[in-house]
């Protein structure tokens, strides 16, 4: 007889998740800002735009050379950066380059918010993309409630991110915008991640605690 708890699930260790996420954060958030700002200070706007585009396509080429898969999302992101760079070069305004992703963040906030009343929490989709979870676990009422609340939390985080970024973009220099905005967004995101992980661990303890008595109450097979 299968004696696995119906709703049991173990979260991978936090250090494992950090080792998985940290290189992607540095590659996708910190490094592009450093590349753009260094080129902007040394070469001006057009040089910074060329450096930003080269960084993205260089990353794709590196993955291809190493034999790693290049996802369609990464290709679309590269095309988006290219379009933004061309528009910024034509208008001569770095604001144009950063406006689109900021507005995109606002749309992401709206998507997280809309998923709550629809009872299709976007946070659950994001979480299961990173850590596969059993279907029975995801259907548990406490788990569903957790992901609805966390979707609302991330909606507020992205909304605050977008508003702060827009204010910085139109009221501060590009240098201040890049570093202050990146630092604030990183801190805000880290706090939201900490709250999400702590809440998920608490949810796990409750769900797994319910599964253990149910398992203990199951009748044992009679001895032959």
Specify the number of helices.
7
Content-based structural category: mainly alpha
The oligomeric status of these chains comes to single chain
Largest sheet data: none
C-alpha termini separation: 14 Å
Coarse morphology: globular
Tally of domains: 2
Rg over CA atoms, rounded to whole Å, is 22 Å
Q: H/E order of the elements?
A: HHHHHHH
Please report which band the strand proportion falls in: under 5%, 5-15%, 15-25%, 25-35%, 35-45% or over 45%: under 5%
Strands, count:
0
| Helical residues, percent | over 70%
List the uncertain runs. 1-6
In round numbers, the mean pLDDT is 79
Q: In terms of topology, how is this protein built?
A:
Elements: H1 14-65, H2 72-91, H3 94-115, H4 122-130, H5 135-138, H6 141-171, H7 174-217
Helix pairs in contact: 1-2, 1-7, 2-3, 3-6, 6-7
Keywords: Membrane, Transmembrane, Transmembrane helix
Protein name: DUF3159 domain-containing protein
Transmembrane segments: 34-57, 69-90, 96-116, 146-170, 176-200
Characterise the protein shown here.
- The protein has seven helices and no strands.
- The relative contact order is 0.12.
- It has 224 residues and is mostly helical.
- The protein folds into two domains: 82 residues, no CATH class; 126 residues, no CATH class.
- The two termini are 14 Å apart.
- The N terminus is likely disordered.
- Helices cover 81% and strands 0% of the residues.
